[in-house]
Amino acid sequence: MEFPDDKIDKLLAAALADLKRRIEQLESGRISWPAFTTAVKGLLSDLYYASAIATAGRGLTAEERDIVERAIAEQNNARNKDFSLSRLLADYAAGLMTLAMLAYRLGQYLKSSRAAAWQIWGNEAATSELFKRYLGGSDHCSSCLLYAAMPAMRFADMVLPGQDCECRSNCLCIIKRV
């Protein structure tokens, strides 16, 4: 089973369009701040689950639901509190960033759903299978160049695209079975 890039891209595009609509509603006063924050958190959660289900190609097991829940919790309350969704929303509410900055950062949070999809995809892998990271796109951070130069390895030992690299949610690297 190959990673369903096209399905994930379509889900992400729909979520980004929904985010844009919500931001326009907030800007025009058609939605309150509390309603906006609830909607954004729901959008993130829905996208993570939809990406995981699209990746699994079926309903999720209890273990896979736990993976998704941990990924959502990590975004909502990141270990580094400066990068948590809760902090981002609080910073905007306190006037510490513009609406454009908020929109950009929220888009990054939505793009991070791909990491949860990678985890579900890798969960299906047999422990003896080997995988390799390949560079995607044309701009690469130094971490991604290093990860792509590494030999094939078990999925459980890999650093997933978007994790522990300077690209973060903009990472276009892919993982393939070798």
Description:
- The chain is built from seven helices and two strands.
- The chain is mainly alpha-helical.
- Strands 1-2 form a two-stranded antiparallel ribbon.
- It starts with a helix and ends with a strand.
- The model has no long low-confidence stretch (mean pLDDT 85).
Briefly characterize the structure.
This protein is mainly alpha-helical. The protein has helices at 5-28, 33-56, 62-76, 85-93, 99-111, 113-123, 142-149, and strands at 131-134, 174-177.
Binned, the helix content reads: 55-70%
Averaged pLDDT: 85
Estimate the global geometry from the Cα principal axes: globular
Give the N-to-C terminal Cα separation. 12 Å
Rg, Cα atoms, Å: 17 Å
Report the sheet-strand fraction.
under 5%
Largest sheet: 2 strands, antiparallel
Number of helices: 7
Compressed to H and E, one letter per element, the order equals HHHHHHEHE
Protein traits:
single chain, 178 residues, mainly alpha, 2 strands
List the helices and strands and how they pair.
Layout: H1 5-28, H2 33-56, H3 62-76, H4 85-93, H5 99-111, H6 113-123, E1 131-134, H7 142-149, E2 174-177
Antiparallel strand pairs: 1-2
Helix pairs in contact: 1-2, 1-5, 2-3, 2-6, 3-6, 4-5
